[in-house]
Amino acid sequence: MSPATRSEESRQAIIEAALGLCVERGFASTTIEGIAARAGVGKTTIYRWWPSKAAILIEGVENARDAAAGFPDTGDIRADLAAQTSSVMRLFNTEFGEIWRGLIGAAQSDEAAAEGVTRILRVSIDACVERLATARDAGQIRTDLDLEMAVELLYGPIYHTWLLRTRPLPEAYMESVLATLLPALVPAPDPH
Amino acid sequence: MSPATRSEESRQAIIEAALGLCVERGFASTTIEGIAARAGVGKTTIYRWWPSKAAILIEGVENARDAAAGFPDTGDIRADLAAQTSSVMRLFNTEFGEIWRGLIGAAQSDEAAAEGVTRILRVSIDACVERLATARDAGQIRTDLDLEMAVELLYGPIYHTWLLRTRPLPEAYMESVLATLLPALVPAPDPH
Amino acid sequence: MSPATRSEESRQAIIEAALGLCVERGFASTTIEGIAARAGVGKTTIYRWWPSKAAILIEGVENARDAAAGFPDTGDIRADLAAQTSSVMRLFNTEFGEIWRGLIGAAQSDEAAAEGVTRILRVSIDACVERLATARDAGQIRTDLDLEMAVELLYGPIYHTWLLRTRPLPEAYMESVLATLLPALVPAPDPH
Amino acid sequence: MSPATRSEESRQAIIEAALGLCVERGFASTTIEGIAARAGVGKTTIYRWWPSKAAILIEGVENARDAAAGFPDTGDIRADLAAQTSSVMRLFNTEFGEIWRGLIGAAQSDEAAAEGVTRILRVSIDACVERLATARDAGQIRTDLDLEMAVELLYGPIYHTWLLRTRPLPEAYMESVLATLLPALVPAPDPH
DNA sequence: AGTTAACCGAGACGGTACGTCGCGTCTTGTT
DNA sequence: AACAAGACGCGACGTACCGTCTCGGTTAACT
Predict the structure, then answer these.
(1) Chain C: nearest CA to D45, how far in angstroms?
(2) Burial of D190 by CB count in 10 Å (0-12 exposed, 13-18 middle, 19+ buried)?
(3) pLDDT, tens digit, for every residue of B121-171?
(4) Are C45 and C83 found together in one domain?
(5) What is the CATH number for D23?
(6) What does the alpha-carbon distance between residue C118 and residue C178 come to, in Å, rounded to a whole number?
(7) Range of the domain at C166
(8) C28 and C103 together in one domain
(9) Considering only alpha carbons, which residue of chain B is nearest residue A157?
């Protein structure tokens, strides 16, 4: 009466194969057939549980992310933002960057992929918002700031430059951005 | 209609077919075969002049852009930035937005498409930089500002929100962004 | 329903499902999965007891045949042959005909199916041979006749026409065949 | 304006590959994919011109048949029938036999294949009927005989035994059949 | 004025991957 | 131990497009 149960082994193998192929051959050249072959799995098993290759990669990224840390909190919001945003920027130049780039690309014409991307981002954004809220409560950030928008001001430039490839991102990019942007986010100095 | 020399008629038909299909069926479902069929053109003619569907669309977008205006200059940088960025943002919700979204998506795993996207953007960025330079010379913008980065701070939030779909863009989005961001771009007030 | 011992209920359901599907959808479109679903049975149960769909149908046909009569014997061999062969011919135009046709088709490239078909036929052929032997002993058939071959002369034309579809079988087909063939099978008239 | 033209080279390669695979692996194990691979041809090319593997083989058989002889006519109908039918019977034990068997099998549940099989047979049957007509006009065959039926009486036993595998066909099978059957086909002797 | 060569439409070609179907096996609880 | 349910690896299906390649058939430009 009970249905045969899903093979966790296959699930893992499929996700790893997808991530591996995406890194080795790029997102566009990664195919369901290729994933099935490398995972030693039937295509049917993939189609039974995922609607597209993007969905597999999204699950892979979420798995990895779940095993990772949150936003740092040293008490110094400027240092924490610099650390976190720079680390994200550096991540974009790794293997993960290529996967993430492919997913965002797919999301532009695949509603389901878009949902996954948004779901992944939501977590990071919320973490950043929360850190900013802590900083605000500590008097390090203006109280009248829309924190969601603040996140967009912080990460927008990175994504703009990285996705649209308008220029190479310098190592110290976020230092410059923060130097310009932060004064607009902190409380106005006492006018005395 | 002319042999031994390129048919302008076919070129137009192909670009229009590509744009039309992209709007009607979406970027991903637009195929070279479909474009050829709708344009009443042989596939060979397409492959002779363009390397990919993205290239056709890029040419179409460039055509359209060339027939459009540059950056406004009313003398009031804040008003001009507000006008231009808002107009861009509104554009993203039109048919053009879907084409542009598809191209940016394709650019994530297609080097040639990426080049085209960058080429298109370069023009807009340069126009914005130039307007900022004028404003700076007029004392409306800090002299020590990296203008390229300033553009990224202005458009980054729009692209971040629009491409990553983290939330719907409110109508007055750029008003808020500018309210927060501009104080950081204008010259510091005389401390006396 | 009953563990540790074969479920007769399932056996019946499977055979009936197989026959039903074969009649409704045709032999080629009848699948093991379809049979299992219609019978409300697990595929394992089918594979445990039968090697192929042909085997199920063969069992079904044998079941039906076992419930049917043998060769008629009115004492008049001509009448009996006419009755029996015509009845077989008529059977080929019923639902059973489609099943039987499918089985013979499968038998052409499936050794096991071929065996089943032959086994089923053997019974009918032996019955016919026996009837002919009785007739021979009664002086109605030549004593030097190879009875096995006689059966082939009788049924060969039917199968030839039915399987190879060279022409529609007229209602009175066997009357004509017997009119031509029988004189060759009966004892030569006394030359006085 | 003119459409690109069909590749005769591919057509030949496909037919030869199909016949070859059918001989080597058997009809059931011959697949469109296998044919395409062996012929060095895209699957599309096969599907563009043939509806099924049976259709390819039918074309192959027709090609071969067109290059073959008709019915012999030595003036002696008995000898000619013996020669022709025995040669057909021998053919069934060759590679061709396996192909022909497969096609007849497929024809039992594939309307298109059935049509092809019938079309092929029609030629042979007509040739036989014609030969019988010549013999009849020469006084060697009864004038009141349905010649189509006569063909069925001649070939029916062969197909019955070969397709239904009720027993191995002895080498001299047709000698026996003709010895029994022919007296029924020739004109009645003068009763004086 | 006639020749010629590049470009045109059409679409067949060898391929790759698609997403689906059914195979026969295996696994999981239930009876 | 046999059962229903159904997931699994596998192989073939028939389809959609890819990018390349003939095919005639136009003209524009150069003899």
Answers:
(1) 25
(2) exposed
(3) 999 999 999 999 999 999 999 999 999 999 999 999 999 999 999 999 999
(4) no
(5) 1.10.10.60
(6) 25
(7) 68-185
(8) no
(9) B156
